[in-house]
Every structure is written in structure tokens, then in C-alpha cells.
Automatic annotation (TrEMBL):
InterPro entries: Phomopsin_biosynth_assoc (IPR053008)
Protein name: Uncharacterized protein
């Protein structure tokens, strides 16, 4: 709908909606898809999320301005963002919208999620507990 670095006033005037999960401007049609609204609500309900200019937590940034300024966020938000963004990206592709992120971001999120798990692996990590079937 609008490039990531568009001023909020301009993006809103073009009818774009800020998606706080993926941090991009979406068309009203895409933003208001029920699956998207449900995913964004799930993300927001696990907050409140605060974004900062500095890693020490000073200088609060409004989410829709972080693409202009850059922002620091908590690891918990980063984890939930990655989990739900991967889900949302698959949804966008299945609806024919394309994805809101570059492939590099997908790889980053997968690596970040796995690195976090392996920092503190669950005791049952090596237990046999998943049954796989041929797809589809």
C-alpha cells in the first residue's frame, strides 16, 4: 500500500493501515482480512509492547514511526512477532497477496526461534513424540 518509510500521515491518507505485527503499511482490504485481524489481535493481546530508541529502554517510539527511526524491543515481543509473522506470511501467500517480508526475514525468524529454543532446551527435546504422515 505504501513503502515502509512512508510518513504515517501520508500512508493513512492513501487508505493504508499500519500492521503492528509485521510493521508494514497494508491495504485496508488486506489488513481487514479476518485471519489477519485475528493474528494481529493475538499479538496485541500478549503486550503491551513498547519500542525504544535506545537499547537501555529510553526514548519511546510509536510503532508506526519505527520504520523511520528504527527501534529496540523486548526479546519476548521478538519471539512472538517471529512466530506469528511466519503464520501470517503463509496466510498472505495462500490468499495470493504475496508476502509482507523478504525471504531473508523468514530465515532470520526461523533461526532466532531455534536459537532461543536451544539456549534453554526443554527436557523432553529428544523424546519421540511426533508422528508424521505423507503430505497432503
Amino acid at each position: 500500500c505504501a513503502p515502509m518509510n512512508t510518513m504515517p500521515e501520508i500512508a493513512k491518507a492513501q487508505g493504508c493501515k499500519w500492521d503492528p505485527l509485521v510493521n508494514v503499511w497494508l491495504s485496508k482490504e488486506a489488513f481487514e482480512e479476518s485471519e489477519n485481524l485475528s493474528t494481529v489481535e493475538k499479538f496485541l493481546s500478549q503486550g503491551p509492547w513498547h519500542h525504544y530508541l535506545h537499547q537501555n529502554g529510553s526514548g519511546t517510539v510509536k510503532p508506526e514511526y519505527e520504520r523511520l527511526l528504527g527501534a529496540w524491543l523486548m526479546k519476548r515481543e521478538h519471539l512472538i512477532h517471529c512466530q506469528l509473522t511466519l503464520r501470517q506470511s503463509y496466510f498472505w501467500m495462500s490468499k495470493g497477496y504475496g508476502t509482507t517480508h523478504f525471504f531473508k526475514h523468514t530465515v532470520h525468524c526461523l533461526r532466532f526461534l531455534l536459537d532461543t529454543i536451544f539456549e534453554n532446551p526443554p527436557k523432553d527435546l529428544d523424546d519421540i513424540q511426533a508422528f508424521i504422515t505423507p503430505f497432503p
